Amino acid sequence: MSETPGRHPASTPKGERRRHALIEAAAALLAEGGFDAIRHRAVAERAELPLASTTYYFSSLDDLVAAAIEHSSRAELTFGRTCLDELSDRDGPVCAADLVELMLDLLLGRASRDGGLEPVLLRYERLVGSARRPFLTELMRGLGEELMALLTELFAHSGTPVSRERLNELVALVDGAVVNALIESNPDPRDGARRMLRANLPGRG
To answer: What whole-number distance in Å separates Cα of residue 42 and Cα of residue 29?
Structure first.
């Protein structure tokens, strides 16, 4: 496939659509099977595009993986921002129950709402696996800062603002509860994290 001089492969509307379709396909595969599920052929088949399109629109498989991670993470951040805006439009501060559930959505993913071990296990495997991929370091750090900023704002709207140190502690409590649930094959790790958060929210105890 030839490329017009001075133009990026995705600079045309058709190119943008194809590139976006590949990113969405890679993100779906990542959510379903982790990093090992993202392969050029698998992504092309999921997007219903020619195999060559994966290397035409992305310089490497790492580039495609990074795009999939960013796409998934920004979709979650956008969802969290929308939910926070909706809660903020109500009269009064965000209630504790809504605070806990939105925080769990952002930390564990919306798929964890329905219970079950698999979606949470895959999410934590992905987070741990990111540390083994240096090309994701800066991206994950930046996305993590955006997440913490959103969580900080969420607590502020709840009427119980927290310091960054305290927020780090709450996130660590969630991670600890989830890891313990995964070790014990608890069918609903989100419930364990929920109980841990409720018991340690600012103003409780």
So the answer is: 8
Q: How far apart are CA 31 and CA 46, in angstroms?
A: 13
pLDDT > 90 in the chain, percent: 74
Could you give the 3-state DSSP secondary structure of residue 7? coil
Q: How far is CA 167 from CA 85, 116, 155, in A?
A: 20, 26, 9
User: pLDDT for 51-87, tens place per residue?
Assistant: 999 999 999 999 999 999 999 999 999 999 999 888 8
- Residue 147 in this model has a pLDDT that exceeds 60: yes
CA torsion 84-111-43-41 (nearest 10°) is 160
Q: Is the separation of the CB atoms in 66 and 135 below 8 Å?
A: yes
Return d(Cα 164, Cα 137) in angstroms, integer.
21
Question: In the structure, what pLDDT confidence band is assigned to residue 189 with cuts at 50, 70 and 90?
Answer: very high
How far CA 129 is from CA of 23, 35, 59, 80, in Å, comes to: 19, 8, 21, 24
pTM across the whole model: 0.87
- Residue 104: which residues within 8 A CB-CB, separation 6 or more? 112, 174, 190, 193, 194, 197
Residues 51/64, Cβ–Cβ less than 8 Å: no
